[in-house]
Design goal:
This protein is of the alpha+beta class and 404 residues long. The protein has a domain of 233 residues: FAD/NAD(P)-binding domain (3-Layer(bba) Sandwich). It is 36% helix and 28% strand. The strands form five sheets. The protein has a seven-stranded mixed beta sheet, sandwiched between helices. A hairpin with a 5-residue loop joins strand 15 and strand 16. Helix 1 runs parallel beside helix 4 and helix 11 packs across helix 12. It starts with 5 loop residues before the first strand and ends with a helix.
């Protein structure tokens, strides 16, 4: 890399924290700026695919990270009207493709907390929580970030800025980049329960449940204090109000459709949220780059958003490693966008939209065709492997390296 450079990272979620740790590992000095005062422990993304595990393994706490989550070798597709399993996919099929042929179900805040703990007291890191970015000013030789901190105005300077500050990104707005795409008309509702769904359904830790009227996702996370929990995700009605969607009657109905005796006693969390399919028109403006939700958002079916955000960060650092001293090499730096934006559109936007449509197929003929296709895929070793290479994003990582 040459002379030591400073990378200013805006956003201390999982993408920003992974970027900070990996940048320091490569010899960068890192300033990490986060608007919130503390780590967000609300239910968020929790699925780490094999491709991403290869990246997390470089950060120095992989064993602790895996121990804080659940190892999920399988995932299942179900038909909700009959509550029968359609197909089971087995990540062990990827044993020759990755050292980690499994998914880890680990809440993203655990990764963030482990990362911040690792940064504490290290001279390489300069971490600022409760600090809101107000302006970004680029110069020929660097970038200045103005912010409002707990003790008043503060200024950070770096060679590059990486915006990992979420779907409402201040960084994206500061560089005047459009967020292209659409918002689904229905919202998603997530219900978190302590009830043991696996005992009732004989299911895996990750389940995709098709239904023409109300599909569902069901997955297990490790939780806290040795008390695992299950998250169930459903679509709301297009015109359904939140008060109705989150009512006791509606929550009991939705959970009961999966597990008949699932009541409200074990329900510990409920919320709705808007769901978007959007990609930034550009991932780079001069010395400022976008990654993660600041660059792209998608529906969560398949667990691809968080993973692709981490892939963004690693791809950018690979690119910056190739950059020598002196003027910016625009062709090289634009490769970050050429690789990441095109693959986000091809692998993530198309895949997550297809994942949703698979679950909400409406006619009996269409539903039967999709069930037959999934089962046939699992029974053919090569098709099984190809499906998993794509769903685990190993295929997208390989494809990115072919883009010059």
């Amino acid at each position: 890399m040459g002379a030591t450079r400073r990378l200013v990272i805006i956003g201390a979620g999982p993408v920003g924290v992974v970027a900070a740790l990996d940048a320091a590992r490569r010899g960068y000095e890192v300033t990490l700026v986060e608007a919130a005062d503390e780590v967000d422990r609300n239910p968020r993304a929790a699925t780490f695919h094999p491709s991403t595990l290869e990246m997390v393994a470089r950060l120095g706490f992989f064993d602790a990270f895996v121990a804080a989550g659940l190892v999920a070798r399988y995932f299942d597709f179900w038909d909700k009207p009959t509550m029968t399993r359609t197909a089971r996919f087995d990540h062990q099929v990827l044993a020759d493709d990755t050292p980690h042929p499994f998914v880890v179900q680990c809440e993203q805040h655990k990764l963030v907390e482990m990362g911040l703990q690792r940064m504490a007291g290290e001279d390489t890191f300069d971490v600022h929580l409760g600090t809101v970015v107000t302006a970004i000013d680029q110069r020929a030789d660097g970038v200045t970030v103005s912010a409002e901190g707990p003790d008043g105005p503060v200024v950070f300077r770096g060679d590059f800025v990486l915006g990992c500050d979420g779907g409402r990104s201040t960084v994206r707005k500061a560089i005047d980049v459009e967020f292209e795409g659409f918002t689904w008309p229905e919202r998603f509702i997530v219900l978190t329960s302590l009830q043991d769904m696996q005992a009732a359904l004989d299911c895996s830790f990750r389940n995709y449940i098709a239904d023409p009227d109300e599909w569902a996702n069901l997955f297990k996370v490790a939780g806290e204090g040795g008390q695992p929990r299950w998250r169930a995700v459903f679509p709301t009605g297009v015109d359904q109000e939140d008060d109705d969607a989150l009512s006791d009657a509606e929550c009991a109905r939705r959970l009961g459709a999966l597990v008949p005796d699932a009541g409200l006693d074990a329900l510990i969390h409920r919320k709705t949220y808007n769901v978007h399919q959007r990609v930034a028109a550009s991932f780079r403006e001069g010395r400022v780059f976008l990654a993660g939700d600041a660059a792209h958002v998608n529906n969560p079916i398949g667990g691809l958003g968080l993973n692709c955000g981490i892939h963004d960060a690693i791809e950018l650092l690979d690119t910056l490693d190739e950059l020598g001293p002196g003027p910016l090499d625009d062709h090289l730096l634009d490769r970050y966008e050429r690789r990441r934006r095109s693959l986000i559109i091809e692998f993530v936007q198309k895949q997550t939209i297809a994942n949703k449509k698979r679950l909400e197929a409406s006619t009996d003929e269409e539903r039967r065709a999709k069930r037959d296709e999934l089962l046939a895929t699992t029974e053919d070793p090569e098709r099984h492997r190809e499906f998993l290479l794509r769903s685990s994003l190993l295929a997208s990582v390989r494809a990115s390296k072919q883009i010059a």
